[in-house]
Specification:
The structure is a single chain. By secondary structure, this protein is an alpha+beta fold. It folds into two domains: 3-237, Bira Bifunctional Protein, Domain 2 (BirA Bifunctional Protein, domain 2, 2-Layer Sandwich); 239-360, no CATH class. It is 40% helix and 17% strand. The protein is built from 13 helices and eleven strands. Strands 1, 2, 3, 4, 5, 6, 7, 8, 9, 10 and 11 form an eleven-stranded mixed β-sheet that branches. The longest helix is centred in the C-terminal third of the chain and has 26 residues, at 329-354. The radius of gyration is 23 Å and the shape is globular. The structure holds serine (SER). The site of serine has 10 residues, from strand 8 and strand 11.
Length: 389
């Protein structure tokens, strides 16, 4: 089942159950929002989770592109991407959690054909502020699924304050042996679907207040679901990456996790540029800068003559089309190349300065790093790359 068909199956299943499809937003949250990028499908819906009536009703479904910088360090492992798409459903004060879990179970087992014997779920076990989520526990026990109770892992929030609630996560076994252990005990259990009973608001003082309505907010990572349904071992092997697999290895010989970093970061950089961000030293621009510079660091390790200018048009076009973005291909290419030139010049300057007697031998002190940054504009990461300690 390719990703287009997965999306269609998902959306139609929920449309048949009274949900309206809404358009996904860009990666840029609305003006005044404290986060840099949209990190989850619920993000653009925050006002509606907090009680404002949504023009399309109380049951919604969509596909939302998301960017998570918290996962940057995990990129290169089999299941994390910087930019990914989230399939989401919402009950805005309409049906309750058990109904959502039951539909989720139905879609996974009947719609996508997953063997129920390979599923495990987790449920919020309760803490000093909120009791255990017995409604979810009862539903899963009726369906005969093994349940693990946790506390922190089953509480979802978008930040320190704001809408939040207990969640129930559905995991799929990916091991070669029959399922064993539990999701927190064995990482061959891969999380597929997170369903949040979004009915609280966390206040500045840490206390919880009930939201005006009891919502359900659910999200599945599309590429991860595709990986599982296509029987692959990593998200990079699913059909979304077909053109990358075909065109990048003949161009640049980079191994294993580094190749994944190159694919992930370049694809993410194209999407971020496609949403109008340009490299800079702060905020979103800095995230973009880090993505591009990390790719270049990997590429130049073996061969400093490699250039993003060699990136096939097909990859940029495929990525912009996939995310339904209108940015001109040439503009994306120009932004990447300008950043490459800037980084190249900075590296050159860094090498010259580090060759001075003051820095030539011994590890760099904190004072050296500050001086190199403040006086010569050389970021700490770059210096440490040029001169590992
Ligand atoms: N907000 C939840 C998540 O991001 C469910 O969509 O996992």
């Amino acid at each position: 089942m390719n990703t287009d068909r997965i999306v269609r199956t998902f959306v139609e299943y929920f449309e048949e159950r009274g949900h309206h499809r809404i358009d996904g937003s860009t990666l840029l949250p609305p003006e005044g929002d404290p986060v840099l990028f949209t990190t989850s499908g619920m993000h653009p819906l925050t006002p509606y989770l907090e009680g404002r009536p949504h023009p399309l009703g109380r049951r919604l479904v969509n596909v939302q592109r998301c960017l998570r910088t918290t996962d940057l360090e995990e990129v290169g492992d089999p299941t994390h991407l910087t930019v990914f798409e989230m399939l989401g459903t919402w009950s805005l004060g309409d049906y309750e959690g058990p109904q959502s879990l039951d539909w989720g179970y139905g879609l996974l087992t009947e719609g996508f054909g997953i063997d129920p014997g390979l599923l495990h779920v987790t449920v919020f076990g309760g803490d000093e502020q909120t009791g255990p989520d017995t409604a979810s526990l009862d539903l899963w026990q009726e369906r005969g699924l093994p349940v693990e109770l946790t506390v922190e892992d089953n509480w979802w929030s978008n930040g320190p304050t704001g809408p939040c609630g207990p969640d129930s996560e559905i995991f799929l076994w990916t091991g070669d042996t029959p399922p064993e252990s539990t999701p927190t005990g064995d990482d061959r259990w891969v999380e597929v679907w997170n369903q949040v009973m979004m009915r609280h608001r966390r206040l500045d003082d840490g206390s919880l207040q009930p939201l005006p309505q009891r919502n359900v907010d659910t999200g599945l990572g599309l590429e991860r679901l595709a990986m599982l349904l296509q029987g692959k071992r990593s998200v990079f092997e699913c059909d979304v990456f077909d053109p990358w697999r075909r065109t990048v290895p003949p161009l640049w010989h980079v191994d294993g996790p580094s190749l994944r970093v190159v694919w992930d970061h370049l694809r993410s950089a194209v999407v971020v540029i496609g949403d109008g961000v340009r490299p800079g030293n702060t905020g979103r621009g800095y995230v973009l800068r880090r993505l591009v510079r990390r790719v270049l660091t990997v590429l130049w390790q073996d061969d400093p003559s490699r250039s993003l200018g060699d990136l096939p048009d097909e990859l940029i076009r495929h990525t912009l089309d996939h995310f339904r973005q209108n940015e001109e291909l040439d503009v994306v290419r120009r932004v990447l190349l300008e950043e490459e030139r800037r980084f190249g010049r900075l590296l050159e300057r860094g090498r010259q300065i580090l060759a001075r007697p003051r820095f030539r031998s011994g590890p760099l002190s904190e004072e050296d790093l500050c001086y190199l940054h403040d006086t010569h504009g050389l970021p700490r990461d770059l210096v440490l790359n040029l001169r590992p300690q």
